[in-house]
Amino acid sequence: MTDLPRSSHRRGTDLPSELDVLVVGAGLSGIGLGARLGESLPNLRYALVEAREVSGGTWDLFRYPGVRSDGDMFTLSYPFRPWSGRDSIAQGQDILDYIRETARAYGVEDRTHYGTRMVGAAWSTPDQRWTVELDVTDEAGAVSRRQVRTAYLHLASGYYSYAGGYDAGFEGREDFAGQVVHPQFWPEDLDYAGKRVVVIGSGATAVTLVPAMTDKAAHVVMLQRTPSYLFTVPGSDPVANVLRKALPERLAHKVIRSKNIATQSGLYTLSRRAPRLTRTIILSDAGKRLPGETVAEHFQPPYGVWDQRLCAVPDGDFFDALVAGRSSVVTGQIDRFVPEGVRLTDGSVVEADIIVTATGLELEILGGADFTVDGERVDLARTFAYRGAMLSGVPNASMTVGYVNASWTLRADLVARFVVRLLQHLLAYRLGVVVPVAPEGMRAGPILDIAAGYVQRVVAGFPKVGDRSPWTLPQSYVREMAEFRRADLSDDLRFYPVGSSHTSVPRGAAAPADLPRPEDRATGPTPDPAPVRQEAR
Q1: Going from the N-terminus, what domains does the chain have, and what CATH number goes with each?
Q2: DSSP tag of 1
Q3: Could you give the CA distance from residue 57 to residue 54 in angstroms, rounded to a whole number?
Q4: Helices (H), 363-461
Q5: CB-based contacts of 523: which residues, under 8 Å, 6+ apart?
Q6: Maximum Cα–Cα distance across the chain
Q7: Mean pLDDT over residues 101-123, rounded?
Q8: Global confidence as pTM
Q9: Percent of residues in the chain assigned helix, strand, coil, to nearest 5
Q10: What is the mean pLDDT of residues 166-180?
Q11: What pLDDT is recorded for position 364?
Q12: Closest-CA residue to 200 (of 425, 370, 357, 30)
């Protein structure tokens, strides 16, 4: 094993030219996988590349007032590193500190290279390697291109573009006399003290921004086209605080995490089995806190619970701001921006000095990079997602996709542990290639099954899920925890031995008959190069 260079701030120019595993992205997912790799395969030559100058992903990118978790930290945190913060719903900076402390504690920071963006990757079956194209930005801002070869590639780059949020294309933007801001690019010097603020949107970002900005703004309006489901949660979990005093740290974390997973899973299951009852339960929370006419006008979503994400309201802060008169809600269709604010289709104008367009994200799969397999470009829209973690016909590669109804980290860690298990399997059986092969006749479905507009606009171009295991992505951590643990690696995965003379990998339903089954250990001499350099443990 060749040690990776140690420095205070590595870049892609410091990357070794040959790696066993390359992880793209240094946010929650990438750092979590890096920690798992270091823990289970310490001699592996692995590295992380991060396009930005710092780690943390989402939690460093978003800087708007009040940015916080939209779920509890006991499930958003890693299972191997207990959350020790006081709050269950944590502020963005606290989450960022936790992620970076984890990266340092598990040695992941020492293997992370910044200012390094993957722009493409080409797989060669004869070489049993990915050649990854990287754009590396130096301290002066100059960009250079370099290549790195890796036996295995994991994409932990999330599902949205960091380059820009969704632009709803409101007419008259240039006519507005004030300032227009998108939460993804919050100006550090934005002064909203004493200003009239209109936040367009009704999702988690808007629900966070509205109460947070009332501390300085003259008034804040949430302008929504369609209401969302809002539900009060405790900012600091009293049950969790009692358990943390009574139990050892790791045991307390495990118990609290299990409690919260059960609660989330139960609510989601109830919403699918008894949608009317679930709707009544959720809306009753707003009914207890707001006048009936306000609930009737602004808090009656025309869709089922969990058709879109449920918005958490820590300690009822959003409702409190409405009751106190510091904020208000307007429901209507936007016609255009006008000099004094936003004009609706009914002719009324919502006046503003600052407009915040919390209109959603611009989705981007696998960081927007191009992929080829043996010279053929991979059309992601025509691939199936194996266990929501690998792509049909794409060898030695995986990706992290989280849940839409629970903390991202829950599934990210399941995927990380599966990737580690897969790598251990390759090592143990001296296999050089693994590729998922989708069965014929499988019906395709969306990999992100949620009605949110920012998803529906682009999901057709994403990989698909199938209609049978292991090609589905159940929105259930409890179910998937069991499925990943007992996953049969012979189930729709095909393997090549190290140094195989095959010139192509199977792209369709049929697989070469002479590929070894996982239970058949490779015999005889093993040609180099091996897919990973650590000896089987």
Answers
A1: 12-162+363-497 (3.50.50.60), 184-359 (3.50.50)
A2: -
A3: 8
A4: 408-428, 453-456
A5: none
A6: 80
A7: 96
A8: 0.89
A9: 30, 25, 45
A10: 92
A11: 81
A12: 357
